[in-house]
Design goal:
Radius of gyration: 61 Å
Structural class: alpha/beta
Number of strands: 17
Amino acid sequence: MVVCFALLVGLATFVQVHNSRQLSETRAQVAHTYEVAGELHEALSLVVEAETGVRGFIIAGEEPFLGRYDVAQTRIGPQLRRIQELTAKNPEQQRRAFELERLATEKAQFMARVLAVAREQGADAARQLLLTGVGVKAMEAVREVIAAMEAEEERLLQVTQSQSQAKDRMSLWISAILAVLMMAALLGAYLLIRFHVAERRQAEEERDRFFTLSLDMLAIGKTDGYFKRLNPAFTQTLGWSEKELLERPFMEFVHPEDRAATVGAMEHLSKGQLLIQFENRYETKDGSWRVLSWKGSPQPDGMLYCTARDVTEHRQAVAALEEARHEADRANLAKSEFLSRMSHELRTPMNAILGFAQIMEMGNPPEQLRVPISHITRAGAHLLDLINEVLDIARIEAGRMSISVEPVRLREVVEECFELIRPIAGQRSIRLEGGDLDCDRHVLADRQRLKQALLNLLSNAVKFNRDGGSVTLTYEEREPDRTSGMTSREFAQDQRLRLNIADTGSGISAADVLRLFEPFERLDADRRGIEGTGLGLALTKRLIELMGASISVESEEDRGSVFSLEFNLVQSPMARGEASAAGTSGSAAGLIGSHTVLYIEDNLSNLQLIEHVMIHRPGVKLLAAMQGSLGLDLAREHRPQLILLDLNLPDIPGHEVLRRLRGEIATREIPVVIISADATPGEIQRMLAAGAEDYLTKPLDIKKFLSVVGKHLNSGNNV
């Protein structure tokens, strides 16, 4: 609307200027016409004056008449040139002006000849020359030219006036139209302004309504330390009336301990910077304190727009949660201390009981003592199993169970478990099928805990089987749904392997399956005289889930049961490392001299991977130890230039192996590189602080591994 109005004003101004210019041009044309006419009249008068002077001299014979002639002759030339200048832009009038000059010149020449005759031959001869009519014809020609020029100027004047009148009428119409448009524009502007005023008033009303009804505490303050406006939420939260809050400096309501920080926040706002998060305590009318969380925005006029939220309950909840966390930490610590003490207090007397019972068995006791001693040995072994399982479950619940998840070759673990179970199954003629598992796949698991879980399941499959029955182990690979929108990489990473252990026992009822994995739940094992603690399946389930796998069971009474374990399939460490090892084989020349490296690792696949990588390092001799104690012995005996250490070992924890290496003079200077599946920052920092030189996480980045090995073997830290 503003642009439209400006265009109309500009157009009206243009029309006005155009009309003024046109009027000036018309006036100039009229003045020009009158000037030309006046000059023509003056020229004619001069010609007539010259002729009159000559005729008067001839008639009267008096010289004064010639004065008029001389004056006229002197002025006629400039007068004719002036006429030519005035008609320069009109070719026709210019032609007539030059014609007038020619005729006036001829007339002047004729009069000069008459005057000469009058002086030489007398007045009569001059009169005879005048009577010839030559002068009259010349005068008539002059008059005709002047009349034609005057007529042309009159015509031009009429044309100009006619055009001016037409343009005046057009300008009048345009002015009228512009006036109407401007009135319409003014009316539109008025209506628009009125609409915007109403809209702004509505927006202000909505803002005030929002300000009043907002659940948050909204405030408008100033850098002078006073509130200027507050919404009712302040009164509802603090109990003070709005008048009380506005009359006093708001710093008086702030807790004394928070005033320095509040002053800092005010200085922050006074510099024109946003206040994103700030908390302080405000006094309520009943004397209590509320924690307010503030956000503020400074304005150019010095006003401060702020919002506050009462976070008192939230802060109390956070404090309570923190206290609960500390309490849980204390309880967890107490539980850990209890586990450590119980492990010692229970195992110490069991060591004496079982030790002396075994000595008594070895000493060929009398027949009447053999059965009691056998009962003592079996009961002690049962109690020891119970202690171990209880402590394992307690460790899991306390978060102290050490799990090292990495690629494990399933076939090796199954073969080891079948070898251990086969003698027990043979006592009852139970067939074991699937021990030579035709599966060379790797699953993501902790090898030691996987073996423990499989042994529990296979042992149960034998114990709860019928004589002459069978235990069958099978596997199947399961792929995710290809229609689920997975990428090819996600699809490859989500492949799983399902391991099934089926027995031909009496089966489990549907009601009992629901209680199967509860601790100390033995179902009808006591009635059937089957030994056990009732903790095996509970522990197995927790171990399997700790490794990121799952366990399920299907059973039918009188038909047997099938326990299924499902693991994530992973690529073999050998296959994953082969390409990297081959791609970096050219860097073998970077190692100077021959070196001995000791790798302490209980996972055979990981050992084979490092052995395969070191094939490309002919100058490196690799020693392997699958137990921590053996690794310590090899370190003392061979004094290797580098030790690679896994943290999850079957006999001694890796951190204890590191502590002993650093505590002995013979091994304290040997660099130790940790290779573990535990990638948590806390564990990495603990191992580095305990004396490890480097920490590599599984799966290994072979290039990085070779770089670290090369760095330490060439560093001059050889022992």
